[in-house]
Design brief:
single chain, 169 residues, 6 helices, 32% helix
Length: 169
């Protein structure tokens, strides 16, 4: 099934936005890997990284949102970096991070970490992370896609359907 939503060629729907984020991260990391992520970030996501994933053996490296130079350095120099997670605009400060620059920085690294963008605040109408080169765009449909507090859902979109398949150990 091919989607036309901003270059998405694959999608997965979840029972919450946090389920989408957790599944996307865990499908592409293993203990000993690292995730570089921007802060501030939604409190549930930060708690997931610090209170669960770090205990599972995944190193979380927080970088101030909007600081592209610091983000570049972290992407290039964090050992075993497998995921770069951006929330742009950030929750709750609305600090913007340059998605295209993060994608460019990730492309200079081997192996290339996946760039995931939590695009909940701007939604698919106002920002298009996949068109900026991100591998996965994540949404909490509970918040801004639903808008009436009548649904609980999450969505992960990808340009490359292979990205939706987990890594093999």
């Amino acid at each position: 099934y091919t989607l036309s939503l901003h270059d998405a060629r694959a999608a997965a729907v979840f029972n919450s936005g946090m389920a989408a984020i957790m599944t996307a991260i865990m499908a592409h990391t293993r203990p000993g890997d690292a995730i570089v992520y921007t802060v501030p970030i939604y409190g549930g996501t930060q708690s997931l990284i610090q209170n669960f994933l770090e205990q599972w053996g995944l190193l979380g490296v927080p970088i101030p949102g909007g600081d592209s130079d610091a983000l570049d350095r972290a992407i290039q120099h964090t050992p075993h970096c497998r995921v770069v997670l951006l929330e742009s605009p950030a929750n709750p400060t609305l600090k913007m991070t340059d998605i295209a620059r993060a994608v460019h920085s990730a492309a200079r690294r081997e192996p290339r970490p996946l760039v995931m963008v939590d695009n909940t605040f701007l939604g698919p109408a106002f920002q298009h992370p996949l068109q900026l080169g991100a591998d996965i765009a994540l949404y909490s449909a509970t918040k801004y896609l639903g808008g009436f507090s009548d649904i609980l859902a999450g969505v992960a979109l990808a340009r490359d359907p292979e990205v939706m398949k987990p890594i093999r150990s």
